[in-house]
């Protein structure tokens, strides 16, 4: 039997909770797919997302402000794009990996490799100075030893030392010259099959491109070389440029206007006069990220399926709230009252087939009921048998009937013996 009942919860409250949960769940999926669940890339490293002294965020902003299409790549897929790829690996990079990457890109797009030299660490919280996220303090300097993996025509030998101001400007590119931020620790290229663009006061190369048989008229002109014969060169190959001194490009170096202008000019030369996008790689600095299923779910062509699933969920939720008729309240499976409790208990015993457990309690119950009916003070078997034989000479005794019930094992036997005791009670009460 059923009847109408009031809803247990307010539908508006439930709808609000569902909407809040759905929005929170969608936001969680988006943040996971966008990689926003961890610390940002401004970690004090030597890459274009870092704003510390060794980062390259400043030159990236300068190039973007000058109208270049600049992007920070966290995917290895950008290595195959036709763009100027700027690599800023750390001191402890994998030289073989970088060499293979550069060899793969020779006919894809130009590559500018900025070598590291600084040991840097974020400013500890215990240091009582005004600082921002990602700021670092500089320790020592060291040569990028992994460049030893460059072989054959790209074999390069580095030098790290002090520049003498008496020898002239620290760096020079054509008519442009200037100073480096730290003259005592300057990294240069001492030996390589390289054409210099920017030279140091000691004659070593600060920035240059490899003479690898490619046709680079824009770079040759900037280096002061006569134009090469295009027929003798590989015109489909892009240049590979190395900047040995990172302070000409990093945030430390961008504090000077002349160095900022030099960095901008080097980038323009690396594009060989083409209007190419500029991509700063972050994967070599451990900030790589691949597409996951959550990202793909919100990108074409999977976006259509995601929207259809969202609409289906909305329809199901709406039908759940706009159901036909009021809710039905079911009656209790176990009704209140002693009679119902006894009936349910008896049904449980029957279902479990444990009738033999009721024999002894039933005997004791009948013993008390018979003693009450005969008004006896004692209820032992002998007293009950004497009283029953006086009232009912032909009836069986209590002890005999009780023993028959104790010995019964099958349900029919138990019921037959129980009825005999009950019949004895009815005869006495009659």
Automatic annotation (TrEMBL):
The chain crosses the membrane at residues 12-32, 293-318. Keywords: Membrane, Transmembrane, Transmembrane helix. It comes from the Bacteria. This is DUF4350 domain-containing protein. It comes from Pelagerythrobacter rhizovicinus.
């Amino acid at each position: 039997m059923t009847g109408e009942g009031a809803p247990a919860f307010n539908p508006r409250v439930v709808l609000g909770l569902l909407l809040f949960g759905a929005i929170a769940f969608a936001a969680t999926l988006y943040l996971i797919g966008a990689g926003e669940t961890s610390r940002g890339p401004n970690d004090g490293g030597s890459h274009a997302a870092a704003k510390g002294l060794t980062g390259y965020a400043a030159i990236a902003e300068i190039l973007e402000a000058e109208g270049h299409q600049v992007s920070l790549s966290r995917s290895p897929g950008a290595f195959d794009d036709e763009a100027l790829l700027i690599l800023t690996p750390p001191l402890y990079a994998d030289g073989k990996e970088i060499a293979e990457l550069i060899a793969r890109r020779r006919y894809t797009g130009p590559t500018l490799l900025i070598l590291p030299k600084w040991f840097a660490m974020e400013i500890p919280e215990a240091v009582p100075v005004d600082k921002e996220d990602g700021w670092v303090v500089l320790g020592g300097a060291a040569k990028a030893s992994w460049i030893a993996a460059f072989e054959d025509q790209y074999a390069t030998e580095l030098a790290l030392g002090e520049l003498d101001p008496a020898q002239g400007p620290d760096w020079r590119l054509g008519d442009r010259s200037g100073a480096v931020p730290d003259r005592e620790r300057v990294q240069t290229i001492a030996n390589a099959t390289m054409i210099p663009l920017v030279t140091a006061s000691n004659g070593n190369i600060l920035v240059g491109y490899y003479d690898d048989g490619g046709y680079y008229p824009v770079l040759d002109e900037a280096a002061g070389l006569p134009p090469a014969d295009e027929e003798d060169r590989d015109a489909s190959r892009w240049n590979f440029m190395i900047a040995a001194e990172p302070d000409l490009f990093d945030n430390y170096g961008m504090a000077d206007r002349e160095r900022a202008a030099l960095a901008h000019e080097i980038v323009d030369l690396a594009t060989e006069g083409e209007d190419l996008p500029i991509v700063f790689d972050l994967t070599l600095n451990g900030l790589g990220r691949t597409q996951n299923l959550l990202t793909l779910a919100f990108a074409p062509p999977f976006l259509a399926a995601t929207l259809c699933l969202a609409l289906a969920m909305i329809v199901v939720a709406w039908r759940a709230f706009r159901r036909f008729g009021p809710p039905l309240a079911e009656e209790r499976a176990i009704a209140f009252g002693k009679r119902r409790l006894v009936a349910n208990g008896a049904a449980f015993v029957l279902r479990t087939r444990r009738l033999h457990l009721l024999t002894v309690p039933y005997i004791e119950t009948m013993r008390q009921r018979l003693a009450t009916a005969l008004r006896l003070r004692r209820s032992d078997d002998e007293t009950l048998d004497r009283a029953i034989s006086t009232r009912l000479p032909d009836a069986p005794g209590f002890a005999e009937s009780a023993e028959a019930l104790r010995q019964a094992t099958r349900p029919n036997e138990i019921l037959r013996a129980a009825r005999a005791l009950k019949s004895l009670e009815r005869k006495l009460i009659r």
